[in-house]
Amino acid sequence: MNHVRISIGLAAATMLLLGGCADDGDDSGSPPSSTRSATSHGAAPTPEQLAAALVTADDYDGTWAVNVPQDAEGAIDGVVPESKQGMLPRIELCGKAGRESHLAAEGLRWQAFRQIDQSEEDPIDMATGDRVGHMIFVQEYLLAEDPAEVESTFNALRDGMRACQGKIPAGEEGPGEAEPMAIPDVGDDRYGDVTRLAEAGGGAYWLLHNSLVRQGPVLMDLQVVDIVMGQGVEPAFTTEGIGAFVATAVEKLP
Predict the structure, then answer these.
(1) Where are the domains of the chain?
(2) d(Cα 130, Cα 192) in Å, to the nearest integer?
(3) Triad 4, 122, 134: Cα angle to 5°
(4) Nearest to 91 by CA among 208, 186, 180
(5) Reduced DSSP (H G I as helix, E B as strand, rest coil) percent helix, strand, coil of the chain, to 5
(6) 138 and 225 Cβ atoms separated by less than 8 Å
(7) What torsion do the CA atoms of 173, 179, 183, 189 make, to the nearest 10 degrees?
(8) Alpha carbon of 101 to those of 12, 75, 96, 97, 106: distances in Å?
(9) DSSP state of 174
(10) pLDDT, tens digit, 9 for 90 and up, residues 149-158
(11) What is the pTM of this model?
(12) How far apart are CA 40 and CA 252, in angstroms?
């Protein structure tokens, strides 16, 4: 099932477009994050090292495949060259986010990217047009630079997403809502939210679980997307399940 266009477009249209609210966990008992990042991590890894640390189709339970469609000219998997930065979705925060948050989002240059899709029965019946089931994929974005710069970027993005929490008005899709999402105590700092967005016309909704993690010189954005289709169909993942996705990805970071 090839749905790269749906996947990339969805990421742009939901969390990356709208931001959300979050709970970045409880760091009680831990040293200040700025101290940990400065003392426990070395030089920033190269884009090639980041690409080697991306999640693979073998890292999660179930059957997954890396999404690099043959008909997608210039598809990205691994290192993201400057010439292809414009192909990735951009974080476009809402108007309630502050200037620093907007500047941080506009200045993002992800250095490594991968999308993996879960292989399951096609939820769309081509004969009847009925849609029952799930379309599930994971997108991972990585960048690395000076730890102090990464900390500043993380803080600005987190603050902007928090400012955009709550109800999401209807646009091309929707309406929806962004809510906090607890994620494991990983990295030097972390932030999680989940956005639920209704499909225009009904019949399906999108759950975009977003996790932003700072670990020394590395910033990771991991998104687990579940497109839920059909009356009575329940989400595929619990909060604990999303936490396992995040923990696995962070364990691989250089």
Answers:
(1) 4-251
(2) 33
(3) 75
(4) 208
(5) 30, 25, 45
(6) yes
(7) 100
(8) 17, 28, 10, 6, 9
(9) -
(10) 999 999 999 9
(11) 0.82
(12) 16
